User: Fold Deoxyribodipyrimidine photo-lyase from Tomitella cavernea.
Amino acid sequence: MPDPAIVWFRRDLRLTDLPALLAARDRSTRALAVFVLDDALLRPAGSPRIAFLAGCLRALDADLGGRLLLLHGDPVEVIPQLAHSINADSVHVSADFGPYGTQRDDAVQASLAAAGVPLIRTGSPYAVTPGRISTKAGTPYKVFTSYRRGWLDHGWRSPAATTADSLAWLDPAELPPLAGALRCSALGALPGIGDERDGPALPPPGEAAALRRWRTFRDERLTGYDTHRDRPDRDATTRLSPHLKFGCIHPRTVLHDLRESPSSAASVLRSELAWRDFYADVLFHRPDTARRNYNPRFDAMRYDAGPDAEAAFDSWREGRTGYPIVDAGMRQLLGEGWMHNRVRMITASFLTKDLHLPWWRGARHFMKHLVDGDLASNQHGWQWTAGCGTDAAPYFRVFNPVTQGERFDPDGDYVRRWVPELRHIDGKAVHRPWARGAAAPLFSVNGPVSADMPVSVGTPGYADTSAYPSPIVDHAEERVVALARFGEIR
Ligand SMILES: Cc1cc2nc3c(=O)[nH]c(=O)nc-3n(C[C@H](O)[C@H](O)[C@H](O)COP(=O)(O)OP(=O)(O)OC[C@H]3O[C@@H](n4cnc5c(N)ncnc54)[C@H](O)[C@@H]3O)c2cc1C
Assistant:
C-alpha cells in the first residue's frame, strides 16, 4: 500500500473544487486530513471569527465522515512531526500568499524537506494567484482598473472536479498518539473557541451553507446586484465574504457560474471579486503594507492624540458618534461581525478624516470583530479610504456622513434597525436628528446653524432624541482640517 498523503487544510475548508486533493491523489489513494489551530493566527482574531471558523471545521469534519484531525501548536513543529509519525509520502496545501503564511510555509517546507517529504502547493484562495499577472513593463499593478483588465484577460481555470470521495481518508482514531491532537468534538473545550452563545448571530458555517447562500443569491437576487449593492438597508449583496475568507467556497466557483451571463449585475460582481484578488496581489508584492502606508508620503501625516482623541476613538468603536449612519455601521459590526461595504467606507472615512486618527487603529478594530476579517482586503480597504493606498480616492474626497446616509439609506431603515434611539424618526430625517422639529433655525452656543450643521447637546433639536448622543465633531469643520493636513504632505 502506498504511504498516505497529508492534506493540510487552512483557508480552503471545503472538498469540492479543491485542486490540492487532485495533487494528493496523484501521489497516493489514502490521505489524512488535518487542520492546525495556530495561536499566531487565533490570537488576533476576535471571538466571532473564531466561532465561525470552529463551525466551518465541524462542518468539514462531518463531510469527511468525522475524520478531520486537529493539531494545536506551531505548524512548523506539528506538521513535520505528523508526517514523520504516519510516514507520509507528501503534504498538500493550497498556497498562502499572505506575509505570515508565506514565511510559515517556507519554514514547514524546509523542515519537511530535511526528512525527504515534499510540501506541495496547489492552487490558492484566489481566481488569479497573486504575482501571476503584471503590467506590460513587468511591474506589479498599482491601479485597480488596469489590474482588472489584466485579470479578465488572464482568466481562471474551471472548478476542479473533487469531492469527499476523491481520496480514502485515514481515521485519526487509528493513529499513534500525537501531542496537541484533538478531534472536532473537543473544540468547544478550547479557551476562546467554545462559547459562541454570547457573540453576534453568525451566518451558517461550512461548505454546504456557502454553496446554498451563493446559489440562492444567484437565482433570486443577482439581478439587481449592480443597482442595489450600495444600499445597506437591503439584503442586496452576496454576503459570501466570511465563506470566501475560510475557503468554504472558491471565487472560481462563483465566476464559473457567472461565465455565461452578459448582464451588468454579473459584470459588477466579477469586478468585486477582482478587488479581492487585487488587494491580495498588492499585499503579496508589498507585505510591509499590512502595517505601513502604501504611499510613504503619509508617514508624515499629522494625527490627533491625547485624551480627547481617545474619547473620540471610543465613541467611534461603540457607535456613539452622533452621526447615525456611522453609528449604525459600527453597531452592525458588533452585532453581526459584518458590515456593509458602503458603510465600511463611511465609517473608515469618518475615523481618518473627521476624527484624524490613523487608519491602522480602525483596521485593527475591524480585524478583531469582522468574521470576514482578511488582512489584504481590510488593510487595503482602509488605506484606500484613508487616501494612502493604491488607486486611492482623490485626497479631497471626504465622505459626508449625512449626505452618504441620505443617499444610500434613503428611507432610513438601516439606521433605525441598528440605532433604536432613533426609531421614532420617520424616513430619511433620521440622518439629521439634530434638525428634528426645527421650524426655526437652531442655535448653538456660537450662533445660528443650518440643518446641515450638528448642534451641541441640550439644544432644542435634541428634545426627542435625548438618549442619542449629539455629534462629537462638526463634519464641515473637520473636513477643512483634513484637507489642510493632506495639503501639508502633498
Ligand atoms: C475599510 C474596509 C475594510 C474591509 N475589510 C474587509 C475584510 O476584512 N474582508 C473582506 O472580505 N472584505 C473587506 N472589505 C471589502 C468589502 O467591504 C467586503 O468584502 C464586502 O462588504 C463583503 O460583503 P459581501 O460578501 O456581501 O460583498 P459582495 O458585494 O457580495 O461582493 C462579493 C465578494 O467580492 C469581494 N469584494 C467585494 N468588495 C470588495 C472590496 N472593496 N475589496 C475586496 N474585496 C471585495 C468580497 O470577497 C465579497 O465577498 C473591506 C472594505 C473596506 C472599505
Observations:
- The chain has three domains: 1-124, 126-161+206-285, 297-489.
- The first strand starts at residue 5 and ends at 9.
- DSSP finds 19 helices and nine strands in the chain.
